[in-house]
Design a protein that fits this description.
The chain has 3 helices and 9 strands, in the order βαβββββαβββα. The chain has 187 residues and is an alpha+beta fold. The strands form 2 sheets. Strands 1, 2, 5, 6, 7, 8 and 9 form a 7-stranded antiparallel sheet that branches. Strands 3-4 form a two-stranded antiparallel sheet. A hairpin with a 2-residue loop joins strand 7 and strand 8. The longest helix has 14 residues.
Length: 187
């Protein structure tokens, strides 16, 4: 029977040297995304603050880009080849006794285009651009990403990043072997 590896998210990483831990976390994150902002875990008095890494949205790698690891699996690569997909990562680091709790969040978005780029059918007949363009400021601090449709979280990439963290810190991956399949009662 095949063993399935599933990492908990957030996951606990034991570490005693927080600077070495942070440098390794940044190195692993940098393999998938360009980092926009880093807030390191800091010592303030007797308290350790939370840290966070925020990345720039990156266009998903296609079937013709096997060297990029952000599209996990054949389906994700095919989807990124046929459509414009982008991903952005946010990693939260929460200090715990003996290490850190790492929460990896990768958000996936699909580009929202009015019509295909090279489509010529009905281009002269129907107007596709709006006659009035209105710009409104969003409420709150979250920027609006016009032109992109949220697709939820990319759990496959989150699992891959956590697996790389386990490898980097020399931790054995958790394993789960499913038991026999149970049928309905009286079967």
């Amino acid at each position: 029977m095949e063993s399935v590896v599933a990492f908990s998210n957030p996951t606990f990483i034991p570490a005693t040297n927080r600077d070495l831990f942070w440098d390794n976390l940044v190195d692993v994150t940098d393999d998938y995304f360009k980092i926009v902002r880093e807030d390191r875990v800091r010592q303030v008095g007797d308290l350790l603050t939370e840290g966070q890494i925020e990345t720039r949205p990156e266009i998903g790698s296609t079937l013709l880009e096997p060297w990029n690891g952000d599209s996990v699996g054949y389906y994700q690569r095919l989807e990124s080849t046929l459509q414009s997909i982008r991903r952005q990562g946010i990693i939260r680091v929460i200090p715990e006794q003996g290490g850190f709790l790492v929460d990896v969040q990768v958000y996936k978005e699909l580009e929202d285009v009015v019509r295909p780029q090279h489509a010529t059918a009905s281009a002269a007949t129907f107007r596709t651009s709006p006659s009035v363009v209105r710009f409104t400021q969003p409420v709150g601090s979250e920027p609006r990403n016009e032109g992109w449709i949220p697709q939820g979280r990319d759990t496959l990439l989150e699992q891959r990043i956590i697996a790389r963290l386990y490898q980097r810190f020399g931790m054995p991956p958790p394993s789960y072997t499913p038991g026999p399949v149970q049928g309905p009662p009286g079967y």
